Amino acid sequence: MSNLAGFNTFTSSLQDQGQLMPVLFMGHGSPMNGIEDNEFSAKWVEMGRNIPEPKAVVVVSAHWFTRGTQVTAMDFPKTIHDFGGFPQALFDVEYPAPGDPELAKETAGLIHSTAVGLDHDWGLDHGAWTVVRHMYPKANIPVLQLSIDYTKDATYHYNLAKELSALRKKGVLILGSGNMVHNLRMMSWEMINGGGYDWALEMNEKFKSLIMNGEHQPLLNYQRLGSAAMMAIPTPEHYLPLLYTLGLQNKNEEVSLFNDKAVGGSLTMTSVRVG
User: Can you tell me the distance from the alpha carbon of 182 to that of 235, in angstroms, rounded to the nearest whole number?
Assistant: First the structure.
């Protein structure tokens, strides 16, 4: 057991909670959302209040892209400021949530499709802490990160997520953090406060329709959805966290959307709640 006085801790045998914890996909957008009180962060705060308080949070962030799969396993993960060109106030933020090495071991043990390494070097990148600090500002809930293996395809990640389903029964919030549409090279500062290119809006609507109808296979084969999809997903790291969330959806389980807005022309904040 982790010896973290004052924090929620785990034993190596997590107890079923009698209900399934919801699963989230958060469009995290700009790192500045981590310190701003805006329409997006307000929804994160609201979500933290509306779902059951988790025993821990496991984040699949677009910003931890590795060869192989790893899970953070330190007692106190550092706050990583993995960005540049932002105000000093953003770099000054520390989110001192504990980790949980025992939960890390248990999470790794649930995954049989690949060996999972226990990482002691990473921490919490901005895909994790900018969102979670709004949800749980007291930093009293353990937070872990699960990395995304960049050598594997979308179907692999979707299926790997299913292996984590037991955590939902044990009060663990699994949170994918990325953006459905994410093409920074085409970002427009004229539309930074709202608005999207036609192709971005087209694909966001397509993604939403498929998600709400439970049609996951086309989302796994997104390369076949046409040229607009390739513009929306020029590289997969911000899209794949969505597939972890969808992979954990049970048959007929309720799905809802929030923060459904395009910003900067080529990025959408559209987020998903399962359960």
Answer: 8
Least confident of 42-46, 72-76, 147-151, 191-195: 191-195
pLDDT digits (tens, 9 = 90+) for 141-164: 999 999 999 999 999 999 999 999
180-220 pLDDT, tens digit each: 999 999 999 999 999 999 999 999 999 999 999 999 999 99
The answer to whether residues 22 and 273 touch, using CB atoms and an 8 Å cutoff, is yes
* Spacing of C-alpha 197 from chain mean position: 24
Rounded to 5°, angle at Cα 231 from 227 and 235: 120
For the domain spanning 23-274, the CATH number is 3.40.830.10
Q: Are 266 and 188 in contact (CB under 8 A)?
A: yes
Asked if residues 255 and 274 have their Cβ atoms less than 8 Å apart, the reply is yes
SS3 state of residue 129 = helix
Q: Whole-angstrom Cα distance, residue 204 to residue 179? A: 10
73, 120 Cβ separation under 8 angstroms: yes
Q: Classify residue 264 as left (phi > 0), alpha (psi -120 to 50) or beta.
A: left
Give the integer Cα–Cα distance in Å for 149 and 156. Answer: 9
Indicate if the pLDDT at residue 9 is higher than 50: no
| Tokens 């899209």 -> residue | 239
**Other Cβ atoms within 10 Å of 87 Cβ, number:** 10
- Does 4 score more than 50 pLDDT? no
Contact 245, 179 (CB under 8 A): no
